[in-house]
Known about the structure:
The protein is an alpha+beta fold. The protein has 16 helices and 19 strands. The strands form 4 sheets. Strands 12, 13, 14, 15, 16, 17, 18 and 19 form an 8-stranded antiparallel beta sheet that branches. A 5-stranded antiparallel beta sheet has the order 5-6-10-8-9.
Amino acid sequence: MTIDALAGSLPARTRGPVITPDHRLYDSARALFNGMLDRRPRLIFRPADTDDLAAAVRCAAESDVAIAVRGGGHSVAGHSMPDDGFVIDLSRWRSATVDPERRIADAEGGCLLMDLDAATAGYGLAAPSGTFFDTGIGGLTLGVGISHIIASEGFGCDALIGAELVTADGRVVDVDEATQPDLLWALRGGGGNFGIVTRFRYRLTPIQQMYSGSLSYRGPAVGEVLARLFELDAAASDELVTQAIVFWSAEDGGPIVRVNVDWRGEPDDGDAAIRELRDDPVPFQTNLRPMTWLQAQARFTPIPFGLRHYWKGHLVGEASAGLADAILTAAEGSGDDGFILVELIHGAAHRIPEDSAAFGGRRAVANVTALSIWREAGGDEAGIEWGRRAAQLFEPWSLSGGGYLNYPEVDQTAARVAAAFGPERFARLREVKRTWDPDNRFRHNANIVPAR
Ligand SMILES: Cc1cc2nc3c(=O)[nH]c(=O)nc-3n(C[C@H](O)[C@H](O)[C@H](O)COP(=O)(O)OP(=O)(O)OC[C@H]3O[C@@H](n4cnc5c(N)ncnc54)[C@H](O)[C@@H]3O)c2cc1C
């Protein structure tokens, strides 16, 4: 059986549109965030509802065809859009509802962060998710989730308390701690390996005003600022979350660092929390101010689809002056649009029990990633080369040799995926995979091959 058989059976047995290469929506439906990937799947199916989706999964199983899942389409490695393959596209599934009494949100599998945030913010509640409001919650939550409130709430996947999952055999399974503890554990960081999540259920936290913004420094001060930021973050309270964006300025002929700050405590106390960064060296630009949760979530301008990307990095076990030097060395050559992103991690993210989630990088103190971004195909070789070289410079500080699976390089190896989990977690994940997807129907992802 083949994808030709599926192309024949799918329209007769489902209700949602099946988008094929001759369809007027084909090009917009297959568009990916990473413009380097010009993928041409055979079939893109937009299910009408959960029953329709489950019927499509059963059709694919009968035809022995692998299934790719598209949520927000932001996977930098293009996992959601395989050439010649079959895609189940959830991009129209964007409804989110909130139960303010129980402080939980239910979000459909194709929601973007903005859908979830818009639903929760009116109740003064928030889910820890990510920092760019146009990314998909699907890939983000299943791949962990680093947000503006990571230090007080943990990773995005830590707030995942339940899900409705369509499994490889087309069953609809309710997942929570009581009914399917192994599956819930696997969904917290194990990616899209175990089925299609039609509904995510999140624990919410009350959120008041934020004190957010950034401080920017240039030239010789950059190394010192980074080293100081590492010390500050390690000792910071749970209310503070920081990240650094480091790049080379052609105009200056030197580095620039922008330190992003999110303080969820009393706005008046925000400046004191970052005192070590404010006064000496003096930033050349500061734009910290009180803002609502929605303003904080929406303040990073979305990166348009179609630019060319190669992202690679490491979750690091130690953030030292040596790492700051390596970041500075790597920043040289970052190109017009590339940068190094350093997401500092402390607080609740570390205290949540290691065995509550499949995610293998909880002990990391930072996620350090080279985001190589350029515009023209002619820049591919240099862009990829810079990303690889930069990641190599961070490797001595790597927790496990693996990177953050939500920022996958397009040439990600099976060894890097396994390293991200470590041997014990990876073995357990392979067992869960064998139980729920023995034929590896869901393989277009950071793949976990079923145990034999
Ligand atoms: C501009 C930008 C900003 C980002 N910012 C952050 C950030 O602040 N924090 C952070 O942690 N990450 C961030 N990321 C990374 C982001 O989490 C990943 O790119 C993630 O894969 C995006 O999810 P998606 O649904 O949009 O991706 P897609 O490409 O649609 O999906 C990626 C994979 O996720 C799986 N998947 C998606 N939805 C489902 C579902 N409902 N059921 C089962 N499997 C599913 C599938 O395996 C799919 O192949 C960012 C990425 C970009 C491009």
